[in-house]
Design a protein that fits this description.
The protein is an alpha+beta fold. Helix content is 52%, strand content 7%. It is built from 9 helices and 4 strands, in the order αβββαβααααααα. The chain has helices spanning 6-13, 55-60, 77-92, 99-105, 110-121, 125-143, 148-154, 160-171, 175-182; strands at residues 24-27, 32-34, 49-52, 64-65. Strand 1 and strand 2 (32-34) form a beta hairpin. Helix 3 crosses helix 5 (110-121) and helix 4 (99-105) packs across helix 5 (110-121). The longest helix is centred in the C-terminal third of the chain and has 19 residues, at 125-143. The radius of gyration is 18 Å and the shape is globular.
Length: 183
């Protein structure tokens, strides 16, 4: 995440299109993410604003794209599917999710979903879900003192051994090492 500087706040208030593509921002009150030039009515203070570098970062934090300004750009049908799946995963990452259950939820075949994800993101839906879960696990390890097993459970990986294996593969160190280094 970026910080909310005076220039960024001014760009948001002035709806300055020159800043589109440089950052996107989320409004905590409605969990929408917008581009700086968004014309929708805003009644927020700097404390309500979160600045993001990427769309995935905003999605990981549970924000949804503004339907007025389309901060992720105009999306093809395939890109819209991938975006909807990402939003769904951001809100359900702690649940048991399979490729089959995702395909069923979005009424497409597993092949269509997998190919769309691979084409547009260079990763599978499963890899995206693991990255999302590790993002939240790292956040919980930094900000809290819950047991590693509980954190694994909260991010949707109920098996501690598997959680530790995945965490080390993704982060390069164990969850306990990560906590000691970043807490």
């Amino acid at each position: 995440m970026y910080s909310l500087t005076k220039k960024r706040w001014q760009a948001i208030n002035n709806r300055d299109g020159d800043y589109d593509g440089r950052f996107i921002y989320g409004v905590m009150t409605d969990h929408r993410v917008c581009c700086p030039s968004c014309q929708r009515e805003k009644d927020c203070s700097p404390e309500d604003i979160r600045i993001f570098k990427t769309s995935d970062e905003a999605l990981f934090e549970g924000f949804i794209p503004c339907p007025d300004c389309h901060p992720f750009g105009d999306l093809s049908e395939k890109a819209e599917l991938v975006n909807q799946v990402k939003v769904y995963l951001a809100h359900h990452y702690q649940d048991r999710i399979t490729l089959e259950s995702l395909a069923e939820a979005f009424q497409v075949s597993t092949g269509v979903l997998h190919r769309a994800f691979m084409t547009l993101t260079d990763e599978s839906p499963q890899a995206y879900l693991v990255r999302l879960r590790m993002y939240h696990a790292k956040k919980m390890l930094r900000d809290g003192n819950e047991a590693v097993a509980l954190i694994g459970l909260k991010v949707g990986i109920p098996n501690l051994s598997y959680f530790n294996t995945v965490f080390k593969q993704q982060v390069g160190q164990t969850a306990v090492q990560y906590r000691k280094k970043n807490n």
